[in-house]
Amino acid sequence: MSTFSDYKKEIMTAAHDERISLALSRAIKSYRANTANALKKFPHTIKMAEEVQEIKSSAIAQMRKLAEEASAAIEENHGKAYIANTNAEALSIIEKLVGTNKLIVKGKSMTCDEIGLREHLEHVGNEVYETDLGEFIVQKLESKPLHILSPAIHVPKEDVARLFSRLTGEELPPDITQLVATARKLLREKFFAADIGISGANVVAAETGTLFMIENEGNVRLSTSAPSVHIALIGMEKLVPTLSDAYKVSEVTWRYANYGVPSYVSLVSGPSKTGDIEKVTTYGAHGPKEMHVVFLDGGRSELEKHPILRQALFCLRCGGCLYECPVFAVTAGHFGDKYFAANGAVWAGMIDKDKEKAAAIAYTCLTCGRCKVRCPMKIDAPEMMVALRRLIADGE
Ligand code: SF4
Ligand code: SF4
């Protein structure tokens, strides 16, 4: 998307794509029902979300300090930690760690997408497999993720069947159970053959350097435990002071992401170790021998300084707002760029410094505020869009 007219064309094409509205209407119905059930069953989540708003607001004001504290804790746990000020620095750190000719399995991570990590590692001669089913489909289709939690939300089962038939050389029917089993078969050996596993994290407890990773498929658990090296790339806005804070953020995240409870929550604080022989601590038992964590600033410290737009950093990436947004309902991730809807506009303007792109997204927003009602962090999208439009108009 280089100009406003390209964006307009893209979004209008998406708005007339019946497959997007069909896929979204099904997803919206199911998201609303599942979230209502989860909040009814666990009503304390609503109060906990208010507590998490306080935790995030205060944590974001001290992101750098928390990144330093978490780095010290990770080093104490025999991991290695790095703070990257820019996307280029993060890419360079990870490229040096990875080298070339490596087989890499990767969990879904918006921060990795943000800096183009997969494409970069492929460019320098590595083979990278997305292991989240939706990301795997999007990667193999050479498409782009159109939702933060369900990247292949726009791809119907018939298209997945065609894709997997091409990958396996077998004629596969559009049967979802069979397609999931095929993905399992295609990726299974990669987890154990991989040299390196890459992940993000939903939240990090600075006091212990513990990464919390929430998922349902089990691919993150495998990617971060089967290969001998684990590398995590994490935006600094994911840091909170304590384990207890991190647990609260996690519970609110998965509940508003429409799960009563997810299948897996992995807590990782350092490389695998054992002291079972003569009490001598030895690293690299069954899990990774090395763990490297890169905390990315990438413009977050600057964004934090804006009294209104800093709200974008509170986002838990639960995806709830997108199911309430009337524009997203007919355009999916075409309403945005790396991130979607109002947060996507803030990201484009304040992090990517692409005013034209930011303006296009900000003026597509209807400022209706439906997303704010759903958002566990009460992020005020209309307020942010008005502030962002003003910044852009003032040429700041
Ligand atoms: S305020 Fe904007 S981003 Fe939020 S629901 Fe309305 S159109 Fe969507
Ligand atoms: S803006 Fe709010 S509702 Fe939307 S993904 Fe972020 S935390 Fe969830």
Describe the structure.
- This protein is α/β, with parallel strands linked by helices.
- It has two domains: 4-41 and 306-393, Orthogonal Bundle (Fumarate Reductase Iron-sulfur Protein, Chain B, domain 2); 62-300, Rossmann fold (3-Layer(aba) Sandwich).
- Helix content is 51%, strand content 13%.
- It is built from 19 helices and twelve strands.
- The strands form three sheets. Strands 1-12-7-4-2-3 form a six-stranded parallel sheet, with helices on both faces.
- α16 packs parallel to α19 (381-393).
- The longest helix has 24 residues, at 18-41.
- One iron/sulfur cluster binds at residues 256, 315-321, 343, 374-377, 379.
Q: What is the alpha-carbon Rg in Å?
A: 21 Å
**Separation of termini?**
21 Å
Task: Tell me, rounded to a whole number, the average pLDDT.
Answer: 93
Query: What low-confidence regions span 5 or more consecutive residues with pLDDT below 50?
Result: none
Q: What structural class do helix, strand and pairing data support?
A: alpha/beta
The helix fraction, in percent, is 40-55%
Strand portion, in percent?
Answer: 5-15%
Anisotropy-based shape = globular
Q: In this structure, how is the largest beta sheet organized?
A: 6 strands, parallel
Number of helices: 19
What fold name goes in the CATH topology slot of the largest domain? Answer: Rossmann fold
CATH architecture of the largest domain: 3-Layer(aba) Sandwich
Find the CATH superfamily of the largest domain.
Answer: NagB/RpiA/CoA transferase-like
The number of domains: 2
Task: Tell me how many strands there are.
Answer: 12
Bound molecules: iron/sulfur cluster
Strand order of the largest sheet: 1-12-7-4-2-3
Name of the CATH class of the largest domain? Alpha Beta
